[in-house]
Amino acid sequence: MQDSGNGDMAQMNHEGDAGSDSHMEHGNDEATPHHHSSGNSEGSVTTTQAKLTVPAEIAPDRSIPLEILITDAEKKLISQFDIFQEKLLHAIAVSNDLQFYNHIHPDYQGNGKFTTNIAFPKPGDYTIFLDYKPAGEAERVSLVTVSVPGTTEATPQPDFTREKTIDDTKVELTLDAPTLKENEDVMLQFTLKDASGNPVELQPYLGERGHLVIVKKGDLLTESSYLHSHAMKESPAGQVQFHTQFPESGQYKMWGQFNRNGQIVTADFWVNVE
Q: Nearest to residue 118, comparing CAs of 274, 2, 273, 269?
């Protein structure tokens, strides 16, 4: 992956002030311990921040380099991170209308700097949730934002379908409650079958049976919009279960990711929470 520390990058400071009028603005926010599906909030609370550097010119559907710096409360670069779910940093990029999703793992260059490449498919605003663990501390979530210039399209209404087919894998979402309510425990079950209707064989993905990201729909995405749930260790063949809580009422989109014979199946679903 390309190191983005080159001269044609627009560097932003922690307050999001642009270096010149030609630079695009990118949001940088303080991180807080995010909501775990298990309710686990152990670990010391340390404020961390992320700063994003991108090219001054961004075009839809064109790969660009990203440079991400992670700093502590005193804005000093954090040099040590703990591995969790097999990676040092999980970067979850979504369009603010939640139509686009990309889960990537930037390369660590040392001294708090991560680099990667990404393409944003269409004009509009994008949020990248950065999920990481400073060494010896609890999981943190920071976010940064990117705007892609151009004419934006109308956002389609949420589709609450509970079954989808991704390539040759059928995925069904079932809930253990007829109505989802805020701050109540819920089990989300993904059932994966092949074209013949037989349960598929799944392999670990990021050290677990599956990976689930949930984002609350809203005009402005924040750290509290983001939920990350861990898969239960035991479940029947072709099934992956997650326990979580939705902290507020509203509409949420979820992306479940599963490893079927080396191919990552990403299934997205909307749910409504009262």
A: 2
